[in-house]
Design brief:
The complex is a heterodimer of chains A (449) and B (296). Chain A is of the alpha/beta class and 449 residues long. Helix content of chain A is 45%, strand content 16%. Chain B is globular, with a radius of gyration of 24 Å. The chains are: A alpha/beta (449), B mainly alpha (296).
């Protein structure tokens, strides 16, 4: 009994030290919001939560909102957030969750299902079905309120294309068209990086989603077989995706490995190389425009006149002709929160139409609320490519809604980096991938196609 | 007076235990328990997120079986050994001994200046060392600037010679330690023995191999063990300099362990790797003692 009291006292002490004490002696409450504070996205988050904080505190006297920015590169952010949420003494109340982690964190018991809350929330019907899909698990539990989405395609430099005698506007029909354009760009101007795509482990999920999955989902194969609930660890499409990457990097069509194989590659690309017009084609997400907004790290008013976004073709132009990948973020509630109702009220306020309108343009993401999408001032916002990015949604793909996806994703990154650096052939890399994934999910969880 | 003094030093096991208790408690909480937990976790499927993180259970030797079947693990062991041999056993150790020998008969002022210069590398925090060498080897860094002046083409050192970069950085960082150990050891070699050897006509090299080294072999063994353990566990320097890459070309066991545990979320597998790392350290330490025939 006494030992129990001592342990309780220690726990209470540590939770106070961690700034997450739920109810202090005076009866006032604190609500901790942990968010990703990195790059332009982090800046927008700070602006967003600082806008919601005073309004919420005014509406709920005695409640203090504690903002807990996690300043870390993408991969480290996920790890840090999961470590924080694992322990009741450090768990924040509300977190920004990448939707690709939602299934994993939900099955790990780190985040709270919100079904009972959203069912009585009239605003819930305003959210896009696809976005809702991204926060819902296999059995229909909803684990967050999605606040932005995105899509991916090929950014190409209009000036460089004209100079090289390539057609503008550019509409590649298959992978060969991309390689051909990159080869022409290289021949015309050796100082330009013809084709930029992420191939490093250091760029984490960007390597998986922005590069590899943009290729794989255009081959007719996919990562996960949802009919058998198995991971597809080898397929012709998997191989040809790796071969495409090998093709680009072994022929000098990609960036220098020292440029691309580090966690800063994204910053180098968007704030340095693209403004300097050193990149011909970049396989990337629509939200990079956030870097070039007046409040972004590299303001560049004419960015979207210099770089245009075009759809990524399928491997051989097979139906539906194009492909894309979509992800996004959601506000989720930590499973350890002691103030569930309050946390829910915060999420509601943060994702209100008014707040979403401000945040979505800053994030450069695709809105998840239909009332925001319908707003013409949003679609025509300067410095954005919302129209193109939205048009990709008709053939977009979402990452497998499987709890083990984050682990599998790292195995993809290893395979891609090995091929790009030439340390493994595409066949060897695929074999190694199969072995790693089998280790993670067990032999009964994989299949070959 | 003398009576009282006598009583105060009288042996009481309870008092000794009482005074040792805080140390034992600290050791138990901060050392023994974590080691036991590591041992336990390495036999589980513990994971940072996903279903395994709530359904954590004993999986027997699965982690170890998969580890030894995994080519990435074998590469990682190889990288660790290459890094260990070149940066610590050969690099730091030999360079440290050479500097200590060269400084032996030099004037005091000269010794302190050189000594301080070498020690600067040692007192610099690992992360700073990593940044210094990153600045040196990066595309527009010092190495390439110098090469450019001499008319050579710039080389992406960290991409094409990553192992060389981390080895050089670690030698720079750690040599001072070996130098200090050997300076102290050389000071203990009796001058009569060296003089006797000299009178017998032994050359410098013969004197070193036949006289000095056998006398200081205890220090050699201690130094070997210490720098081996230090280098085996080295993480920050490599991670900040190359991130274990490109590919897996500098992925030593600590980096591999970190990636598996914190990037791949496989905490159980990660702890199993750390156990193997511990084992390698223990085996290496015993091997040195055996080879050098030193008793501790």
């Amino acid at each position: 009994m006494r030992r129990g009291k001592i342990i309780l006292a220690i726990l209470a002490g540590t939770s106070l030290v961690a700034g997450c004490g739920q109810t202090s002696a005076s009866g006032s409450k604190t609500l901790t919001i942990a968010y990703w504070a990195f790059g332009p996205r982090g800046k927008s988050y700070a602006a967003w939560f600082n806008q919601v904080k005073p309004a919420f505190e005014k509406q709920h006297p005695g409640v203090t909102i504690v903002l807990e920015p996690i300043a870390a590169a993408e991969n480290d952010f996920y790890t840090k957030l999961d470590l924080m949420m694992k322990s009741p003494s450090t768990a924040p109340d509300v977190v920004t969750e990448d939707t690709f982690l939602i299934n994993a964190d939900a099955s790990a018991g780190l985040i709270q299902p919100l079904n009972s809350y959203v069912s009585s929330w009239k605003n819930w019907s305003q959210f896009e079905p696809a976005a809702k899909q991204a926060v819902t698990n296999k059995v229909g539990n909803i684990y967050g309120v999605p606040y932005d989405s995105d899509s991916r395609g090929l950014w190409y430099n209009v000036n460089l294309f004209k100079k090289a005698g390539l057609p503008v506007p550019w509409h590649p029909h298959n992978w060969n068209d991309i390689i051909a354009a990159a080869t022409t760009l290289k021949a015309k101007d050796p100082g330009v990086i013809p084709f930029w795509s992420y191939v490093g482990k250091a760029t984490g999920e960007a390597t998986t989603m922005q590069d590899f999955e943009m290729l794989l989902y255009g081959t007719g194969n996919s990562l996960y077989d949802s009919s058998t609930n198995k991971w597809i660890v080898s397929s012709p499409g998997f191989l040809s995706s790796l071969q495409f990457i090998q093709n680009v990097y072994s022929h000098g069509l990609g960036p220098q490995l020292s440029q691309i194989l580090n966690g800063q590659a994204n910053n180098t690309e968007t704030t340095q190389l693209m403004p300097e017009q050193k990149i011909g084609i970049a396989l990337d997400v629509n939200v990079i425009t956030a870097n070039w907004l007046p409040q972004g790290p590299a303001p560049w008013p004419s960015a979207t006149k210099t770089y245009d976004l075009t759809a990524m073709p399928t491997e051989n132009g097979q139906s539906p002709g194009y492909t894309s990948m979509s992800g996004g973020f959601a506000l989720s509630m930590s499973a350890h929160t002691k103030n569930k109702d309050l946390a829910w009220q915060f999420i509601q306020m943060a994702t209100s139409e008014k707040n979403m309108r401000t945040i979505d343009i800053g994030l450069s993401g695709l809105p998840t609320r239909t009332d925001v999408i319908a707003d013409p001032s949003y679609a025509n916002a300067p410095g954005q490519v919302f129209k193109q990015a939205t048009s990709f949604l008709q053939y977009t793909h979402y990452r497998p809604a499987n709890a083990q996806y984050p682990e599998v994703s790292t195995a993809i990154q290893t395979a891609v980096e090995s091929v790009a650096t030439g340390s493994l052939s595409p066949q060897q890399a695929m074999a190694q991938y199969a072995q790693s994934v089998t280790r993670m999910v067990g032999a009964s969880g994989v299949e070959h196609q | 007076m003398s009576k009282r003094k006598g009583r105060s030093v009288s042996y009481s096991p309870w008092r000794a235990i009482l005074f040792l208790l805080p140390t034992w408690a600290l050791m138990l909480v901060f050392f023994v328990l974590p080691v036991l937990l590591t041992f336990y976790y390495s036999f589980t499927n513990l994971s940072l997120t996903g279903p395994n993180s709530v359904d954590t259970h004993f999986v027997g030797f699965t982690n170890f079986v998969t580890m030894f079947a995994d080519p990435a693990f074998r590469t990682s062991v190889l990288m660790t050994l290459i890094f260990l041999v070149f940066s610590a056993i050969v690099g730091q150790q030999v360079l440290g001994l050479i500097i200590a020998l060269l400084l032996q008969q030099k004037p005091r002022a000269f010794r302190s200046i050189i000594g301080v210069l070498v020690i600067v590398g040692w007192v610099t925090p690992e992360i700073v060392v990593a940044f210094i060498w990153f600045a040196f080897f990066s595309d527009h860094g010092t190495a390439n600037s110098v090469a450019g002046v001499l008319g050579f083409k710039p080389i992406a050192w960290l991409v094409h010679f990553p192992m060389l970069c981390v080895v050089v950085a670690n030698i720079w960082h750690g040599t001072a330690f070996s130098m200090l150990v050997y300076q102290a050891a050389l000071g203990d070699v009796p001058s009569e023995v060296k003089e006797a050897a000299m009178i017998d006509g032994a050359t410098g090299w013969r004197r070193l191999v036949g006289v000095t080294l056998p006398i200081i072999k205890g220090s050699v063994a201690t130094n070997m063990i210490l720098i081996t353990l230090q280098t085996l566990g080295l993480f920050t320097l490599i991670y900040a300099l190359t991130g274990g890459g490109p590919g897996t070309s500098t992925e030593t066991l600590p980096i591999y362990m970190y990636e598996q545990a914190f990037s791949n979320y496989q905490l159980g597998y990660g702890t199993a790797i750390s156990l193997v790392l511990l084992l390698i350290g223990i085996i290496a330490s015993f091997a040195y003692l055996k080879i050098l025939k030193v008793k501790i």
